[in-house]
């Protein structure tokens, strides 16, 4: 093989190597700019669903406690916002106001509130499973 042939092979190898490096750079940029951002968004959305599920579980536990202990009145600490609490006396525990979103509250009986919580729990669980599958697809 002549020196001209060796130089031709070296040039082809260098050109191929440069093309591969450019492709790798494009893939890395796509992963960093698109996939990682999409994955983080999906995981953040799923975390918000888990937080909502946690609040629903807390609601169900407290309603069940009121029902089991047959409380007709009780004292409670109410969060006014910004972690400022006041003590309140609840004179009638047969009905409860539940935050249903967008700043709206609905008055329910305890049984109705439990039914509402069960429906929302199923919905949030289904959504969180879908988010988990979506996150796995992105990974």
What is this structure, in a nutshell?
This protein is 68% helix and 20% strand. The chain has 139 residues and is an alpha+beta fold. The chain has a two-stranded antiparallel sheet.
Describe this entry's structure for a reader.
It is a single chain. This protein has 139 residues and is of the alpha+beta class. 68% of the residues lie in helices and 20% in strands. The chain contains two helices and four strands. It has helices at residues 3-68, 110-138, and strands spanning 74-81, 84-90, 95-101, 104-109. The strands form two sheets. A two-stranded antiparallel ribbon has the order 1-2. A two-stranded antiparallel ribbon has the order 3-4. A hairpin with a 2-residue loop joins strand 1 and strand 2 (84-90). The radius of gyration is 29 Å and the shape is rod-shaped.
The tally of beta strands, per DSSP, is 4
Order of helices and strands: HEEEEH
Helix content: 55-70%
* Content of β-strand: 15-25%
Ends apart, CA distance between termini: 48 Å
Please identify the oligomeric state: single chain
The number of helical segments is: 2
The coarse overall form would be rod-shaped
Protein topology:
Layout: H1 3-68, E1 74-81, E2 84-90, E3 95-101, E4 104-109, H2 110-138
Antiparallel strand pairs: 1-2, 3-4
Helix pairs in contact: 1-2
